[in-house]
């Protein structure tokens, strides 16, 4: 592996010379030994699986567009994509931060347990599907079926939300600033509480979205009618 | 004729009615169907139960082996070695699974099973040198500690799925479906989530269970290819990736799984069990394991990956004969779920205090509206013998050490039976069993298994009409 | 099933870019499908009223296209031009196209029709997409728009005939990523209405459905709308007509599609990585169609309407 080490702390990795598999291997094992604290990934060109399964507090800067699963199952690391990303960004994220400066494709932040995902432009459909405790902040719009079956965590949408928002929602909470095309089964709009404003302000600050104020947002949460099925209630299964 | 509270019919009374009143029972609208309709009209909710398909379908029992004869010489038992060693996942992984037997333990969740049982499974499996599999709900420390080889399931729900457990697993099994409910998911109405299960799954306790039918982050084999790659990247290509399917369009699905990169394909027939799902799925979706293993094997042969990609078959594997026949028809290994629970006392009329003293469980079966031998009530979590339960009192009824020994004994018997049959067919390795060692006792099983009807050359649809 | 690619060059003076960029996009999709690939390009339009371009296929690799074209020319007493490449050829009778086709069916039953139209050319074959692109010189194609596909077989066999794009009628082709769940009933319904099927592929069922709607007088958008009711399952469709490129996703929108639009082009692919190398991609408007959202780009008006 011939990669330039700019200083003891930062490393440049050129994916056009050494493939993703070697990069991930290095990030999993070699990094700790070298004492490297930051890795700049050059020429990503939409490759899949960049920086997956990390478990160290390293900074990874992806200089371009990432493919599917960037930051998948992330722990501790701070990953920034200076471009767009494909499906399932930061899926199953456990902790740490993944930030995408451009657009992301479907299933962003799927099934995460902790940590933060920030998407500066639009996310596509199923953003936050099956969330289990992670937080997602989207600067633009989210597509249909976002937060589908979301169990725990916060999804913040600074733009508009597509159809079926929060379908089959559990205890996750969604804050939406723009229009909601339609709510999913068992999702309802609720008044914002003082606690909501505090939580939301914190998330917007972490995301670096200073232009938006918590007062501009609506709260969407579970109506909890699917929690206990009732034969009299005409519920649809 | 009376219906018991749970809708089960008192058959004893029925018998008399038919005789004394001279009315012939309708085949279509028999007493069971009548009781079912009344139950539906009463409750307005569908049936949920555990176990697999109960009805009779063609199975391995319909096949028999052509063992040693004048032209085929048997091996001596005990002196002439019959190899049962099995390797799974040699295609891509740096560390394939090396088992001492072709019999593995199928995925069953902690949540449906108690912690004690999971530990017993781990220890018993390790004692015979085979693997266990986690289920919907994730990996417990008990199971990881007790099981030498642990396969980690990646399911649509992703409950508890995390990279640390992934990294300490010996293999990953991406579950597309299972035999009991291929294509299923949906609402398990009335299945309340207990406290411990709730915390493991990040759900509120006491609510109805919802089950995802598709994976959250991929749909379709082209995207599965990419998901499998991701799992490999996270685990540094060390461990094998299995893909499990419920048996429906088996030939297509197996081919797709292979093309998507699976190292091992697991095919689960309609007889496969479950802890809780809608009865309508269990009985009316999926094809028999006998038909599935043949189609799966044909798919691997057509893609010319026999020996490269392994096939594990499950769904109604109970005896050494089942195992041997599955292998003869092309499986590299089998996976057992329901029968393993039977070995631990499922449906037994007693449980064993401290692993020694039998204590009657009859009353507890009655409370569930059933009796030993007929119970399928895993979904209640009130297992009379302490297996499918989270209740702290009930789960004490399975002593892990006792359970481990029972499992070890059972698997040992199966393994010996397979070797016995293989030796009798002149094989020094159970994996040398082949389909030509089998014939069928019925026309249906001959057609499904594509082996001749005993005493004839006839394979329906293949030779002749 | 697998990887879709679409490209429309907006500037009529930049149409030589079509082949080069289209091929790069296609090769970027090879990881989604390695069994076969196909491409439909809308290149120069034939001028004569009753002339047509036929994309033809003859198995074996040693078919004498020159003799074939000569035979057709003799029969028609009209000029017949052709460009051959192994087992594919684009043959243009400059008049009496109907007669020409009847002659092919009678005299050369071994030759299969890949497409017919005034502008369309179709190539499809089994093998790796990069090899196929090389074999048929995709890089040198000049035209307004292209629709291409890489495939991993799902419910029907890996054969040449099952490779996308599916062509029906004139200048019409369809590419499909996904899997329909009711293709058989659809096929039977269409067969009752007189449509003929070449394969049991679900994509052909969808293509013939649209062909039927167009025949019944629907425009492309109305035909696709009718499809939302009749077609069940998961699909992303990429459709080409003589002047149009269309993109649509089913009501679940589970199968991927990403589009990028600049002043110079509209590019569509299953994955962003296929678009990553395009010129000006960093400033492009990148978006994914929502469920049941229909996008149609007309090369003449190049406006997207929903």
Question: Can you give a write-up of this model?
Answer:
Chain A is α/β, with parallel strands linked by helices and 237 residues long. Chain A is built from 2 helices and 11 strands, in the order E-H-E-E-E-E-E-E-E-E-E-H-E. Chain A has an 11-stranded mixed β-sheet with strand order 1-2-3-4-5-6-7-8-9-11-10, with helices on one face. In chain A, helix 1 links the parallel strand 1 (10-14) and strand 2 (38-42). Chain B has 16 helices and 18 strands. Chain B has an 8-stranded parallel β-sheet. Chain B has 465 residues and is an alpha/beta fold. In chain B, strand 3 and strand 4 (97-99) form a beta hairpin. Chain B is globular. Chain C has 306 residues and is of the alpha+beta class. Chain C has 7 helices and 17 strands. Chains in contact: A-B, A-C, B-C.
* Gap from first CA to last CA of chain A: 55 Å
Rounded to an integer in angstroms, the radius of gyration calculated over CA atoms of chain A is 19 Å
Strand content of chain A: 15-25%
In order across it, which strands form the biggest sheet of chain B?
Answer: 5-15-14-12-11-8-7-6
Shape of chain A: elongated
**Annotation, overall tally of beta strands of chain B:** 18
Instruction: Classify the secondary structure makeup of chain B into a structural class.
Output: alpha/beta
- The unreliable regions of chain B are none
Number of helices of chain A: 2
Most extensive contact: A-B, 43 and 37 residues
Largest sheet properties of chain A:
11 strands, mixed
* Overall residue-averaged pLDDT value of chain A: 92
Count of helical regions of chain B:
16
- The percentage helix of chain A is 10-25%
């Amino acid at each position: 592996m011939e990669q330039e080490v700019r200083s003891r702390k930062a490393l440049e990795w050129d994916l056009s010379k050494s493939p993703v598999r070697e990069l991930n291997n290095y990030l999993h094992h070699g990094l700790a030994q070298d004492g490297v604290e930051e890795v700049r990934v050059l020429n990503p060109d939409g490759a899949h699986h960049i920086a997956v399964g990390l478990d160290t507090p390293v900074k990874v800067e992806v200089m371009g567009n990432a493919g599917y699963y960037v930051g998948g199952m992330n722990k501790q690391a701070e990953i920034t994509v200076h471009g767009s990303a494909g499906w399932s960004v930061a899926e199953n994220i456990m902790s740490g931060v993944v930030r995408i400066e451009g657009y992301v494709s479907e299933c962003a932040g799927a099934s995460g347990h902790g940590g933060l995902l920030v998407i500066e432009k639009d996310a596509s459909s199923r953003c936050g599907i099956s969330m289990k405790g992670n937080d997602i902040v989207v600067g633009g719009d989210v597509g249909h079926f976002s937060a589908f079956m979301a169990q725990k965590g916060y999804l913040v949408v600074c733009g508009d939300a597509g159809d079926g928002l929060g379908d089959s929602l559990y205890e996750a909470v969604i804050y939406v600033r723009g229009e909601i095309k339609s709510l999913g089964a068992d999702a309802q709009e609720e008044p914002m509480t003082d606690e909501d404003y505090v939580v939301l302000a914190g998330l917007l600050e972490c995301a670096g979205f200073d232009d938006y104020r918590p007062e501009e947002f609506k709260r969407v949460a579970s109506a909890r009618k699917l929690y206990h099925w009732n034969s009299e209630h005409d519920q649809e299964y | 004729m009376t219906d018991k509270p749970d809708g089960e019919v008192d058959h004893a009374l029925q018998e008399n009615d038919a005789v004394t009143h001279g009315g012939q029972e309708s085949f279509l609208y028999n007493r069971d169907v009548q009781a079912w309709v009344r139950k539906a009209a009463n409750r307005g909710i569908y049936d949920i139960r555990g176990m697999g398909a109960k009805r009779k379908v063609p199975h391995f029992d319909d096949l028999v082996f052509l063992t040693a004869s004048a032209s085929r010489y048997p091996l001596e038992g005990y002196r002439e070695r019959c190899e049962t060693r099995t390797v799974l996942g040699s295609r891509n992984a740096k560390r394939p699974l090396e088992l001492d037997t072709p019999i593995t333990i199928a995925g069953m969740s902690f949540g449906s099973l108690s912690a004690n049982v999971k530990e017993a499974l781990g220890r018993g499996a390790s004692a015979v040198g085979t693997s266990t599999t986690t289920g919907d709900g994730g990996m417990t420390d008990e199971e990881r500690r007790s099981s030498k080889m642990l396969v980690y399931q990646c399911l649509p729900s992703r409950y508890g799925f995390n990279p640390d457990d992934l990294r300490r697993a010996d293999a990953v099994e991406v579950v597309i479906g299972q035999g009991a409910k291929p294509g299923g998911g949906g609402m398990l109405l009335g299945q309340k989530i207990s406290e411990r299960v709730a915390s493991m799954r990040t759900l509120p306790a006491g609510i109805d269970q919802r089950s995802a039918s598709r994976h959250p982050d991929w749909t379709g084999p082209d995207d599965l290819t990419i998901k499998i790659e991701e799992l490999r990247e996270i685990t540094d290509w060390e461990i094998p990736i299995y893909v499990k399917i419920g048996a429906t369009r088996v030939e297509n699905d197996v081919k797709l799984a292979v093309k998507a990169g699976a190292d091992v394909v697991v095919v689960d027939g309609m007889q496969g069990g479950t802890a809780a799902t809608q009865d309508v799925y269990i009985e009316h979706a999926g094809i028999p394991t006998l038909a599935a293993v043949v189609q799966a094997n044909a798919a691997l042969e057509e893609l010319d990956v026999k020996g490269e990609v392994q096939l594990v078959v499950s769904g109604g594997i109970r005896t050494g004969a089942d195992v041997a026949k599955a292998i003869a028809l092309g499986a590299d290994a089998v996976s057992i779920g329901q029968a393993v629970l039977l070995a631990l006392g499922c449906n037994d009329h007693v449980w064993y205090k401290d692993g020694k003293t039998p204590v009657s469980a009859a009353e507890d079966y009655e409370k569930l509206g059933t009796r030993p031998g007929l119970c399928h009530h895993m979904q209640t979590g009130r297992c009379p013998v302490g297996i499918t339960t989270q209740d702290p009192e009930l789960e004490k009824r399975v002593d892990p050490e006792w359970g481990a020994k029972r499992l070890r004994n059972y698997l040992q018997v199966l393994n010996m039976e397979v070797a016995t049959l293989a030796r009798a067919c002149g094989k020094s390795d159970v994996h040398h069993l082949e389909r030509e060692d089998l014939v069928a006792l019925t026309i249906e099983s001959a057609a499904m298994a594509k082996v001749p009807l005993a005493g004839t050359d006839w394979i329906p649809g293949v030779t002749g009409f | 099933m697998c990887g879709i690619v679409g490209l429309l060059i907006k500037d009529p003076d930049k149409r030589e870019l079509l082949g080069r960029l289209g091929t790069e996009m296609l090769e970027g999709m090879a990881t989604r499908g390695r069994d076969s690939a196909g491409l439909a390009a809308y290149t120069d339009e034939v001028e004569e009223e009753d002339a047509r371009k036929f994309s033809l296929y003859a198995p074996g690799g040693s078919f004498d296209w020159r003799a074939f074209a000569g035979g057709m020319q003799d029969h028609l007493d009209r000029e017949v031009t052709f460009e051959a490449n192994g087992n594919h050829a684009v043959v243009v009778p400059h008049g009496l196209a109907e007669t020409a086709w009847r002659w092919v069916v009678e005299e050369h039953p071994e030759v299969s029709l890949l497409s017919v139209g005034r502008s369309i050319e179709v190539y499809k074959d089994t093998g790796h997409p990069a090899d196929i692109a090389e074999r048929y010189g995709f890089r040198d194609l000049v035209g307004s728009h292209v629709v291409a596909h890489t495939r991993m077989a799902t419910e029907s066999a890996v054969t040449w005939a099952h490779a996308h794009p599916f062509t029906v009628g004139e200048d019409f082709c369809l590419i499909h990523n996904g899997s329909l769940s009711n293709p058989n009933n659809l096929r039977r319904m269409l067969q009752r209405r007189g449509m003929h099927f070449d394969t049991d592929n679900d994509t052909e069922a969808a293509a013939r459905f649209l062909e039927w709607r167009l025949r019944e007088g629907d425009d492309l958008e109305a035909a696709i709308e009718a499809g939302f009711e009749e077609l069940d399952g998961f699909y992303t469709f990429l459709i080409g007509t003589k002047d149009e490129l269309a993109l649509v996703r089913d009501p679940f929108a589970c199968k991927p599609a990403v589009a990028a639009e600049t002043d110079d082009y509209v590019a569509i692919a299953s994955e962003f990585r296929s678009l990553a190398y395009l010129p000006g991609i960093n400033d492009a408007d990148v978006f994914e169609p929502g469920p049941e959202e229909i996008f149609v780009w007309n090369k003449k008006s190049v406006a997207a309407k929903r």
